Amino acid sequence: MKLSYSIPHKIVTLLIAGASISAVIMMVTLNLLRPAERIIYLVTLLPLVLPLGYVFFWQRSEKQQPERSPRILAFWRGVISYCLAFDIVSFGWKKVFGLQFRPVPLSIADIPTGEQVPSWLMWHFYGYSHTFGMIVASAQIIGSFLLLFRRTRLLGIMVLLPVMINIVCINYFYRLGIGPLYQSLVLSLGLMYLLLSEYHRLVLFFLSAQESLPTIHLGGSKLKNAIRLCVMVLAFGYIYLFYWRSQAAHESELYGVYDVKSLQINHQPTSLKVLAQDSILNRVYFDDGNACILQFNSHKRRLFGHYDYDSQRKTFKSIFNFASDPVGDYMPRGKTDTLQAIITRFDSGKEISIAGYMGRDSLQLVLQKVR
């Protein structure tokens, strides 16, 4: 057994331990006391700094009684494990009791998706499925329990680390704030520290363990390596082919969202102020993949199709073979409608005039670009 450890090793251990303690204090104070922001910083930073003073005692103790050093290291690793378990299992129980991964507030749910901040978009996504939330909660609860025992600690780390790294990415890229990001970083770094402390067991398990099945010989290592390379290249190749084909339906100059400024059907002006009529066309979308969507006063009343556009002749044709169902998705229609039209005026994409036919009806539209 190793009886002495380097000063950097001791400092890292104590820093991780202090950060783990501060994460626990932050969790409890935020959930129960809700103190002022300055107090939160104070109670968070003190546990982060104070354990560093212990490094001098540890160093002196190691010189006087080297056999005590492994016990000191085991103690601080235990502190890290228990603090991580407490913090992570708390997040698990919050999901069980509906304090996380729940539907967003009604006032937020009514805001259009395109106008919401990233954090609420994230909560929309994770709050949709209660079952998914329970799966994540189960991983956090079970993994935290495994952290509390030396024999199962490595298994607990393997369960929790992918979950926590994913949460770090969510907190950072969806801008959930410095508090959640700090918590997730501390928990992830703590798990990584514990994982690296099991380095020799990991090497033994992943790199040195013998296969239980015999090796298949296929003409030597060169052929095997060629097959391995083919797996990677072929997967890249067919995905690139799919990507290349999708580029054929690139964004046209019509791309955008347009409000219907004026509408004539069979040369008869239609009042757009009669909003109660479901049949009034009020918005047109020229979307990705040359999709054309006609909206009739609600996202629940839409026709969906794809259009072909000739930018030289300013003509396009769109076939509408899907319609929105009551929940806002698209379902195949019993019949199809075809819109054939010409752009009679194109004002740098800000306002366009369209004249054409949809079925037997003639249409004249003036569209104002919204975005």
From TrEMBL:
Transmembrane parts of this sequence: 12-33, 39-58, 74-93, 125-147, 154-174, 226-244
Entry keyword set: Membrane, Transmembrane, Transmembrane helix
Name under which the protein is recorded: DoxX family protein
Lineage top rank: taxon: Bacteria
